[in-house]
Amino acid sequence: AFYQRNYIEGLFLSSGVMRNPDYTMEQMLRVVKLLREAYRFNGYIHMKAIPGASDELIAQAGRYADRMSVNLEIPSEENLKLLAPEKSYSEVFAPMRFIQQGMLESAEERKKFRSAPRFVPAGQSTQLIIGATPDSDRQILTLASALYRRPSFKRVYYSGYIPVNRGDSRLPALAAPPLVRENRLYQADWLMRFYEFKATEIVDESHPDLDLDVDPKMGWALRHPEFFPVDVNSAPYEMILRVPGIGVKSAKLIVVSRRYGRLSIPQLKKIGVVMKRAQYFIVNRELPMQTVNELTPQYVRRQVTQKQKNRAAELLQYAIEWGE
């Protein structure tokens, strides 16, 4: 009914394990078949694949679902065994490999026959729980980077650990979910997927965890002032993309727009450049020659974090006044 009224365009079909993996997968398969065949639901379906379920059941599900996901949950096998001794990475990676093979075979079939059925056309994804184990951000992003190198992999989701069972000594006693860390991981993930960053550039041995006070792109720029300042009127796209405050769309517009003349500060703002962050890392005739190298990374960091605190205070005050 919601689909017919245009209230929804897609759904996520998931389940905990009932009885055993095959039984659970059979029940989910019944639902997705009912949606597609009986109710003619042509919207987007993201369906969970249950580790341990037979290849045959996953193969059937893949012909009805747009995307499938197998959740790794814990970023390292060592800690997975600690929290869930009955589970193993091999059990989780097996359906991932099967889905990938099915997608590759489907793509080859569709090259020969356009009417060949699709198999998981929107690719596969997974989820990692953040904060339940001592795994570092370096371990998490290295794993995510390896997954993204697989041709079938489209998304890694990060979910902050929410304490529920406080009686288990194996689990950390967190006062609240690590939401800021979760957000920083999503930002770092975005850098790997769209900004041409490698995981080893974002986190390394000397910086195994992301800076919670500044976003990962700003963190990288402050650790590598030798790459700055960047002249937006002549630098290559790849370097402009690494300037804090400049996004993918803005970087592309800069490269196109500068063909017609030098870009001014008002033009950069109009393009979408966030000058509050970018001003420390670019050179322009209208800007004073005080970039991260003259001011020092420590000074820029203080300026950026103070502006963030001021903005947060303004929003809080606005919320209080609005509430009154």
Overview of this protein structure:
- The protein has two domains: 66-212, Transcription Regulator spoIIAA, CATH 3.30.750; 219-323, no CATH class.
- It has helices at 21-38, 55-62, 77-83, 89-112, 137-148, 179-194, 199-202, 216-223, 237-240, 248-257, 265-271, 275-278, 292-295, 297-323, and strands at 10-13, 44-48, 67-69, 124-130, 153-160, 230-231, 282-283.
- Helix 1 packs parallel to helix 2 (55-62) and helix 2 (55-62) crosses helix 4 (89-112).
- It is an alpha/beta fold and 324 residues long.
- Helix 2 (55-62) links the parallel strand 2 and strand 3.
- The radius of gyration is 24 Å and the shape is globular.
- A five-stranded parallel β-sheet has the order 1-2-3-4-5.
